[in-house]
Design a protein that fits this description.
Elements lengths: L13 E5 L3 H12 L3 E5 L5 H5 L5 E3 L13 E4 L4 H13 L3 E4 L12 E5 L2 E5 L6 H14 L4 H10 L1 H7 L3 H11 L3 H8 L3 H13 L5 E6 L10 H9 L2 E4 L5 H4 L7 E4 L2 E2 L2 E2 L3 H13 L3 E6 L9 H10 L3 E5 L4 H9 L12 E5 L11 H4 L5 E5 L5 H10 L7 E6 L7 E6 L3 H6 L5 E5 L6 H4 L2 H5 L3 H4 E3 L2
Parallel strand pairs: 1-2, 1-4, 2-3, 4-5, 8-13, 8-14, 9-10, 9-13, 15-16, 18-20
Antiparallel strand pairs: 6-7, 11-12, 16-19, 17-18, 17-19
Protein name: Siroheme synthase
Keywords: Cobalamin biosynthesis, Lyase, Methyltransferase, Multifunctional enzyme, NAD, Oxidoreductase, Phosphoprotein, Porphyrin biosynthesis, S-adenosyl-L-methionine, Transferase
GO molecular function: NAD binding; precorrin-2 dehydrogenase activity; sirohydrochlorin ferrochelatase activity; uroporphyrin-III C-methyltransferase activity
């Protein structure tokens, strides 16, 4: 990298922009927003610059070398490459900071992409090589950074010494800020620009005993881009994360590096850690004052036993939150090109689990065998033959389309298509985790599939029929 990232105080410093068009206007807005003493040299001004006219000195002339006298920063932003090159050469000889707007690679100064949450600024650059990438990153960061973050930073700065006195080490201080930064009451005060109220709220929070908390987080069906922003935020604040086997490595890589990771190994048909032990681990970690994330594939309340874990926490008097995730029924079917409902095929969708509680009652197969609905069956591979038999005995046509979606939404997604009468044989061709879809909408995967063809897996290998 040829450029060194620096934050320079530009307030009250003399700055010169040569040019009167759209590029000059963009640079002028940036400099004026930071209090620069701005002079603009151009024979004429664009409408946008005319609207800013009272905020800078305008010299209605063509550029001359004497315009550089006494300047701190110079921006060459005309529509003439030769003029810009001359401005750059003259300013460079004088040792001035100069930006050549039409050639950032040869500029001594680059204007970075900026995301602002006053007084917080995040600035980044691609060195002029890929401005589209800088714009993409700016858009993503603009979504990720909460709007109240800057105001929180201001209040935190005022209370920094008090927080240091209240909490003996950096780890305790980090836990304090992780606990309070997203509290609705504090966010409301900050959004209302009530700094005094926010300071009072934080002072009170400092006196309250530090208590552990469990956040039940849905990791989605596999694609890390489907993780919610709130889920990502919680992964970055966690002291410890208990995760299942269904959570992908890409998502685990987003956990705060210093956080402890505990694999509890839950997967359909295989529980390396019994549920009762998982419940106890959650209680013990929270009682130790830690911020605990319980990370579960899909949505934690969709056949994930999340409610059972919360009942244990509630009985132990432990605070908890729930961050929903995209469930496999929505994510995997969408990536396979299978709509859950369609006015020509199904007016409803039913989600069921093929993995029942021991000695549990069987589903209402008669109701499930009715037409014009979509059945989505989680954890059904091991009972595929039983499911086929029960549905057909209740009158569901053996030619009903079915689809098994293996590792849905990931680069290894595979969709196997067939008919209900073939369900047992289809299941033998698929590995867990897999989702089972039964209904005429499953046939639409042949025409609506999009994900496997884009990832390069190839439709012939990814989508096939049994037989």
């Amino acid at each position: 990298m040829e450029h060194l990232p620096l934050f320079i105080k530009i307030q009250h410093r003399p700055c010169l922009i040569v040019g009167g068009g759209a590029v000059a206007a963009r640079k002028a807005r940036l400099l004026l927003a930071r209090g620069a003493r701005l002079t603009l040299v151009a024979p004429a001004l664009s409408g946008e610059l005319q609207a800013l006219r009272e905020r800078f000195d305008w010299l209605p002339a063509t550029f001359a070398e004497h315009h550089l006298d006494g300047q701190f920063l110079v921006v060459a932003a005309t529509d003439n490459a030769e003029v810009n090159a001359r401005i750059y050469q003259l300013a460079n000889r004088r040792g001035l900071m100069v930006n050549k707007a039409d050639d950032s690679k040869r500029s001594a100064v680059i204007f970075p992409s900026i995301v602002e949450r006053f007084p917080l600024q995040v600035a980044f650059s691609t060195g002029g090589g890929a401005p589209w990438l800088a714009r993409l990153l700016r858009a993503r960061l603009d979504v990720l950074l909460p709007r109240h973050l800057g105001a929180l930073g201001q209040v935190a700065g005022k209370l920094r010494r008090q927080v240091q006195q209240a909490f003996g080490n950096s780890d305790e201080r980090r836990r304090f800020w992780a606990r309070v930064q997203d509290e609705p009451a504090l966010k409301s005060l900050l959004q209302q620009q009530d700094q005094a109220g926010a300071e009072a709220w934080l002072r009170q929070a400092m006196t309250e005993p530090a208590a552990g908390e469990v956040i039940l987080v849905g990791a989605g069906p596999g694609d890390p881009d489907l993780l919610t922003i709130k889920a990502l935020n919680e992964l970055q604040k966690a002291d410890v994360v208990l995760f299942d086997q269904l959570v992908s490595e890409e998502i685990l890589a987003l956990i705060r590096p210093e956080a402890e990771r505990i694999s509890v190994g839950k997967k359909a048909g295989h529980h390396s850690v019994p549920q009762e032990q998982i419940n106890q681990l959650l209680v013990e970690q929270a009682q130790a004052g830690k911020r605990v994330v319980r990370l579960k594939g899909g949505d934690p309340f969709m056949f994930g036993r999340g409610a059972e874990e919360l009942q244990t926490l509630k009985a132990a008097g432990i605070r908890y939150q729930v961050v929903p995730g995209i469930t496999a029924a929505a994510g995997a079917t969408a990536y396979a090109g299978i709509p859950l409902t369609h006015r020509d095929h199904a007016q409803s969708a039913v989600f069921i689990t093929g993995h029942c509680k021991q000695d549990g009652e069987e589903p209402d197969w008669a109701a499930l065998a009715k037409g014009r609905q979509t059945l989505v069956i989680y954890m059904g591979l091991m009972r595929a033959s039983h499911i086929r038999r029960q549905l057909m005995q209740q009158g569901l046509d053996g030619a009903t389309p079915v689809a098994l979606i293996e590792r849905g939404t990931t680069a290894r997604q595979r969709v196997v298509r067939g008919e209900l009468r073939e369900l047992g044989e289809l299941a033998e061709r698929v590995e867990s985790p897999a989702l089972m879809v039964i209904g005429s909408v499953a046939a639409l995967a042949d025409s609506l599939a999009w994900f496997n063809t884009r990832t390069g897996n190839g439709s012939a290998a990814a989508i096939g029929r049994c037989g």
